[in-house]
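Archive maintenance. Older records in this collection stored only the sequence; we are now back-filling the structure field for every entry so that each record is complete. The fields below show one back-filled record exactly as it appears after the update. Entries are processed alphabetically, and PCDGM protein is next in the queue.

ARCHIVE ENTRY
Title: PCDGM protein
Organism field: Indicator maculatus
Length field: 690
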Amino acid sequence: AQLRYSVPEDREPGSAVGDLAKDLGVDVRSLTTRNLRLVSESGQRHFQVDLAAGVLLLDSKLDREALCGQSPTCSLHLQLVMENPLQLHRVEVDVLDVNDNAPQFPKPEVVLEITEVANPGTRLPLEVAEDPDMGSNSISTYELSPSKHFALSINVRGDGVKMPEIVLEKALDREKVAVHHLTLTALDGGNPVKSGTARVTIHVLDANDNPPVCEPPISKVHLEENVPVGTLVTKLNVTDLDEGPNGDVEYSFKISNNSPGKFTKLFALDPRTGEIRTKAPLDYEESNAYEIAIRARDKGSPAMEGHCHLRVELIDINDNSPEIVLTSLSSPVQEDATPGTVIALIGVKDSDSGANGQVRLQVGKELPFKLVSSFKEHFSLVTNGPLDREKASGYNITVRAVDSGSPQRVTQKTFYLPIADVNDNAPNFSSPFDTAHVQENALPGTSVFSVSASDPDEGSNAKLSYSILDNGVQDVPISTYFRIDQDNGTIYTVRALDYEQDKVFQVPVGVKDDGSPALSGTTVVHVFVLDENDNAPTIVYPTVPKGSAFHQTIPALAEPGYLVTKIVAVDADSGHNAWLSYQLQESAEAVPFQVERRSGEVRVAQALREMEDPHRLVVEVRDNGVPSLSASVVIVISPEENSVQDFAKSLDLPKSSPKDTNLTLYLIISLVSISLVSCVMFALLAARCL
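Back-filled structure field:
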């Protein structure tokens, strides 16, 4: 937005200039939180902002003449910057002139000379009074005290300055009046009117009666800036009708307080020829025109002089490059910034004028940014598409300013804009399933497996923490079996695992980042418990109390191969740890019996003679684990008188068959088959998941 206020130059400090809050349409209470601040383009502080009232105040008393000199307009340019969102407002304050200066002549007394033979209509230029005020408060008119011979004439110069001249209206007679005393009064147009006076003394001389005459008296020359030093500006055309010394003219610059003579440093005047040449480089941006007053004076006695006025107007050339000013920059910018978000406020200046000072700003089309014109010579750099820090963590932005001159001048400014991360990427595991193995009876705290997830975000948005999720699949919460290091994802056992109770666990693992809001991911670790030989064989038949023996009778004349009994044992372990073998413990004396190693059948090994005493056998059952575990049973075999006992009946078991004798072998085959089927199923499941 652009605001415009006006304030008289005599206003006291602390006076209100304008209601910023009302004119900007913002709440006064928000000015402090939005960090409203005032920036003067001239670098001088003349104003301040009352944040409590939202009013622009005068900070110091203004002097329009000191600020703007003789400029017809006097404006002070300010910039108001507000944040959240970032906004730039331009304020232009017109300083109004008041009639605080009275007209004043360069000298309190002006002495003029005129020949007595001067013709009516002869003009005597007077010093121009100066009044620092402008407009209606500047010099309005001049007045001359009444005189029979002289009257006042006022000419208007090309720049609007009024030049008083005394005009001879009646022929002079030096013998009657040699000196005329007049009073010249300069009046301004203020209210009330202020004035200044100067005494004018006119000496009437005799002799040289033709002054030099400049043709034309007021002329104008156009000249390009930066012309080489020594370039001819013009040659004055002055004539003097007198002859000899009275017609020999010398030229000189005429300097007054109203024309302080800056041009004398830039232009040189040949006193003999009247040629005016440059003697220093000319700069349009410093001044676009110069008013030069020249005095043409002859060598008569008394000398007479004429006056020429030359206006030199400079033609601008494109000799200044544009200037880029980065007023404000929001750095860094969030990667989720919506299109149209203001990134920076950029101003551009070019000291040239016209087309040479018209500047276009450009930014690379490959960047997700664009320039939007706020108002004259001010632009906003805004986002023009989505940002992704994971693809580009920052941008080197080059702003290019090109003017419309010929040849064009180009300026560019590069600044780096970092992109701030937002939590827009969830942690991700490399696989939705993992497999791990752990020995049963492993000590609590044993490392089982380490999961790892990745997050392309950075900082706290990429800081990951792992946890075990309870999905309710097991009867007992999974956290009672396993725990996980939340920092590195290593899974540990909480207690010793029992293969015979649980052979596999599904451990759901979750990971989440530390962003806001937090994002998460999951995976499942299948933990297989490896069997350990921690269970000794158990004899299920015959059932004998601990410390007792099993008594079995057989016919006294039983033949070799006769089935005495069968030992049946089981092992809670699996695989090799459950493979059982049967054998007789060695004794001091040989016994006519043997035990089948795999089936556990006790048979007569050799023909029995008369068996009077019972035989005591110790049958040992041993598994195939490492170390091997075993169990034993004591069998006492006694002869049976006059009977042939059917072993099947004596055991209350079905008749022995090959199927019964190979029970253990079948059990082993079944376990191996089940294990193979399980492995194949898990392999198929894993392949399908992948």
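Update note: The helical segments are 20-24, 30-33, 64-68, 647-651, 658-661, 663-689. Residues 643-661 have pLDDT under 50 and may be disordered.
Entry marked complete.
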